[in-house]
Amino acid sequence: MDGTRSAAPINLENVRKQYPDGTVAVEGLSMDLAAGETTVLIGPSGCGKSTVLRMINRLIEPSGGTIRIDGTDVGRQDAAKLRRSIGYVIQNVGLFPHQTIRANVGTVPRLVGWPKARIRERTDELLSLVSLDPDRYGDRYPHELSGGQRQRVGVARALAADPVVLLMDEPFSAVDPIVRTRLQDEFRRLQETVRKTVVLVTHDIDEAVRLGDRIAVLSEHGRLQQFAPPAELLATPANDFVREFVGGDRGIKLLAVTPIPHDRLRPADDGTLAPFVAADATLQEALAVMLREGSNRVVVSSNGAPSRVLTVDDIVTELAASRPAPSVEKEG
Ligand SMILES: Nc1ncnc2c1ncn2[C@@H]1O[C@H](COP(=O)(O)OP(=O)(O)OP(=O)(O)O)[C@@H](O)[C@H]1O
């Protein structure tokens, strides 16, 4: 990690954690996390998700195996320095209550000795990036913000010193469902801009599907059951454990991550009367429009090119066709 890259790959090799009381939380986990991608760790309570996350920034030391960031063994680095190069967001944020929002966001840049003007510039830039007006909120204290706003500050603080890795442990679970969805949408937009290597822990499959470039499903003792992009996980669960975990409505979830198959649609004739959907809509969004408008078809608008028609039958066909081979399959 030379500080010049904005994101770095993470490699876990046969990582193991046994706590002093004998509990084996993680038993030989190996996986490669691509730079600039969001990897979601999901699995039942107690399967070792948080333990994995906290071994990456060495809040917990592994009992065996190797964790590398950008090829460098984290165990060989100075722990404090390592932690400053890794953003960490937790549920309920843990903001310093007696410091202003700006001071909270500027914590790591201050620690690493940035000049005051640069810290101010960076904190204001980040507050804007997480949709908080710095002039309005910068001088407030954490208790003067809503839960969702505090969570945004937590994300801004984690990104402040431009870390190569961002670890997020149930970052959006302490807020109500509406705020949560909004924060998830904001996070997606933010990640498109900053493109960090994000490792996010959740127990919510819908959140995993919405946010993950790849999802790692873990079972007890941190056993990797499947590691795949959301569409693949939903279309072809590797085994019964994953199938049960993603739920009986995985077909509906799959709609949410499947784009409209433009090439396979019929052109609309001039007389086609149906509601419009945007070209970049998902099948779920298209279906929602059909249900709302009481129509069995929609016209897909397409920047200049001739419009096409998407029908309910097309959606059924598309779902039936999405059966890619699983990329990692392990016995349950
Ligand atoms: N400090 C500790 N000492 C002993 N056992 C621990 C310690 N921390 C966690 N454990 C145990 O290790 C296992 C994995 O815990 P961990 O918190 O990593 O799971 P998790 O998947 O993040 O769970 P949750 O979804 O409930 O937060 C659990 O059995 C837990 O009880």
TrEMBL record:
SMART domains: AAA. It is an enzyme of class 7 (translocase). Residues 10-246 form the ABC transporter domain. Keywords: ATP-binding, Nucleotide-binding, Transport. GO terms for molecular function: ABC-type quaternary ammonium compound transporting activity; ATP binding; ATP hydrolysis activity. InterPro entries: AAA+_ATPase, ABC_transporter-like_ATP-bd, ABC_transporter-like_CS, CBS_dom_sf, P-loop_NTPase. Pfam families: ABC_tran. Its EC number is 7.6.2.9. Belongs to the ABC transporter superfamily. This is ABC-type quaternary amine transporter. It comes from Virgisporangium ochraceum.
